Amino acid sequence: MKAQDWAVEQVWYNGKFYRSPEELAQKYHAGEVDVVVLEDLWLQGQVLVLRTMSTVYNYDYIWDFIFYPNGVMEAKMHATGYVHATFYTPEGLRHGTRLHTHLIGNMHTHLLHYRVDLDVAGTRNSFQTLGMKLENITNPWSPEHQLVQPTLEQMAYPRERQAAFHFRQTLPKYLLFTSPKENCWGHQRSYRLQIHSMAEQVLPPGWQEERAVTWAR
Ligand SMILES: [Cu+2]
């Protein structure tokens, strides 16, 4: 599908809900949204990028929402602008790397949080996971032998808290936004969530200012 044929039906963007491409276009003309069409060398097609920037103190964050022709959606954030730094002392090297004569880029964390309300073939979606479980069976055509084979393990999480996973916990193989609607083979239509994040538990849970960012646990 050509990028010029793409249609925006409903867009949740920067805390506002846009019901039409015209509304989004208004915001675009106001300079708050950039729409960039990029050549995607890997897929040999074009991708649509919704991009915005936010300046927070020394940082200029770039927020990208990328839409691929095959249906994949990707959210990316880059931190640009001025680096967070402190005065150089030799002891400071325990906390960062030297950048200049009197400057250390000290270690710190950027925590950000996406709240995703993804509609997969309708609004009645649920969160599910798909994992792998081994089973030990008797080989049907050779009963004197045992066989260990993988089976699919589907899990439903009816409550939001149950779907909150802690850092360092082994995640199920597939995290799925699942529709009650089925495809022609009887499988529930789903979108897979892939997390490419280096975020971690920054401070011990409950420790002083950590209580201000409990959403980051
Ligand atoms: Cu930083």
TrEMBL record:
EC number(s) per entry: 1.4.3.-
The keyword Oxidoreductase belongs to this UniProt entry's keyword annotation: yes
Span of domain Copper amine oxidase catalytic: 44-217
PANTHER family according to UniProt: AMILORIDE-SENSITIVE AMINE OXIDASE [COPPER-CONTAINING], COPPER AMINE OXIDASE
Keywords of the record: Copper, Metal-binding, Oxidoreductase, TPQ
GO molecular function terms noted in the UniProt entry: copper ion binding; diamine oxidase activity; primary methylamine oxidase activity; quinone binding
Modified residues (2',4',5'-topaquinone): 59
Known cofactor(s): Cu cation
Protein known as: Amine oxidase
Species annotation: Cnephaeus nilssonii (Northern bat)
GO CC term (a single one): plasma membrane
One GO term (biological process): amine metabolic process
InterPro entries assigned: Cu_Am_ox_TPQ-bd, Cu_amine_oxidase, Cu_amine_oxidase_C, Cu_amine_oxidase_C_sf, Cu_amine_oxidase_N-reg
Gene3D superfamilies: 3.10.450.40, Copper amine oxidase, catalytic domain
UniProt xrefs under Pfam families: Cu_amine_oxid
Post-translational modification note: Topaquinone (TPQ) is generated by copper-dependent autoxidation of a specific tyrosyl residue.
Cofactor note: Contains 1 topaquinone per subunit.
Family: Belongs to the copper/topaquinone oxidase family.
PROSITE patterns: COPPER_AMINE_OXID_1
